[in-house]
Design brief:
twelve-stranded antiparallel sheet
């Protein structure tokens, strides 16, 4: 289970806005009971011009023809056959790649957000950007991001087609989680995985609130019946605690200011913007010789459009690699071959004025492959 590594009451105001988990329409599910037969919403089927309609019967979802928007009909995504996850295909555009013609990590994060939003709308949740269920809207509750963890094994290149599957499920009494699997559509090879943790917050008081049974009933009907994790491995990196980076940091980029384009539909700085800020303080020699393999961010505080942000980074030794290096010996070298091909950093984003923590992060980098 992912746990918040800070006091929930003290830091509820610090959490950034959610954009992807939402709830079903009225009358879907009475508390504690399964719906007998309820129409949910439309989501497109790539195999036909007409969009698909998700229908729930005895707690199971299926996809049927129906009516919907033009976007629904043209979108290359649909619920899976059991209705408990959603898949969508994307073509990597030229403006989504970097200097090496492969997708940037910001592109990957944006696609994760997009497919999550489309899944939420596809099962009938709110389209206002807060991903709320009927009960949540009555109680003025929203979902907010607590943690995001992304692992990329192979970056897709310009014009590659990526298929992303996503699903959500309960996570304790105050949270939920959404997971993703990324595949190269041409080869069906898994090229990345991601998971995220979300908590519920009162939109007016900015305080966290437990997920009620009524809310759980509204969204769990669309979740896998058994636990399904993108990272089922024991002691996987998505659960690893991130220590706070203290000054003086080895590298810094001060005075970052949100642009208007960084604001989302809810007038908050978009979650993906934080990834770019984290990378701004990375040393150029790492950017030139390594590629990002893993990024984990713990969100602590909302960032407003008029805030000024400092980005701090420092090298973090990896205990596992250090132990391997000591066991195998380094042949007199200060850096062993194992650690030479791998780098790990701690990150901190803070408000420039008062030093309040916005988020903390960890990145892991691998040596760039040799060009042929």
């Amino acid at each position: 289970m992912l746990k918040l590594s800070w006091n929930a009451a003290d830091h509820a105001q610090a959490l950034s806005q959610c954009r992807f988990l939402e709830g079903p329409r009225p009358g879907l599910l009475a508390s504690g009971r399964r719906a007998a037969a309820a129409t949910v919403s439309c989501c497109s089927s790539p195999a036909s011009k007409a969009p698909a309609l998700a229908v729930v019967s005895d707690g199971l979802a299926r996809v049927e023809p129906g009516s919907g928007s033009l976007a629904d009909r043209l979108r290359l995504g649909s619920l899976t056959e059991d209705g408990l996850s959603y898949k969508e295909r994307f073509i990597v555009r030229c403006y989504e790649v970097g200097m090496n013609k492969t997708a940037t990590v910001e592109t990957i994060a944006n696609l994760l957000q997009e497919v999550g939003c489309n899944h939420a709308q596809g099962v009938g949740f709110s389209t206002d950007g807060f991903a709320t269920t009927t009960t949540m809207r009555k109680m003025n509750l929203i979902w907010v991001t607590a943690r995001m963890h992304i692992e990329i094994y192979k970056y897709p290149a310009w014009s590659d087609v990526v298929e992303i599957e996503t699903w959500c499920q309960g996570e304790g009494r105050i949270g939920t989680r959404r997971d993703w699997i990324l595949k190269d559509y041409a080869t069906d090879r898994v090229i990345g995985r991601a998971t995220s943790k979300w908590v519920m917050m009162n939109q007016e008081t900015r305080r966290l609130q437990k997920v009620s049974d009524d809310v759980r009933d509204e969204y769990l009907i669309f979740c896998p019946r058994e636990s399904r994790l993108a990272f089922p491995e024991e002691n996987n990196g998505s659960l690893k605690k991130i220590a706070k980076l203290e000054d003086p940091a080895q590298y810094s980029r001060l005075g970052l200011v949100p642009r208007r384009a960084d604001l989302d539909m809810n007038q908050h700085v978009n979650n993906v913007t934080y990834i770019g800020w984290v990378l701004e303080s990375m040393p150029q020699e790492i950017i030139d010789s390594y590629e990002l393999q893993t990024i984990t961010l713990d969100y602590r505080r909302e960032c407003q459009h008029d805030d000024v942000v400092d980005s701090l980074s420092s090298h973090e030794p990896d205990e596992t690699l250090e132990a391997i290096s000591q066991l195998n010996g380094t042949n007199g070298s200060a850096v062993s071959p194992a650690t030479e091909d791998y780098r790990q950093f701690l990150h901190l984003l803070r408000l420039s004025g008062d030093g309040l923590e916005i988020n903390r992060g960890r990145t892991q980098w691998r040596k760039k492959p040799m060009r042929r």
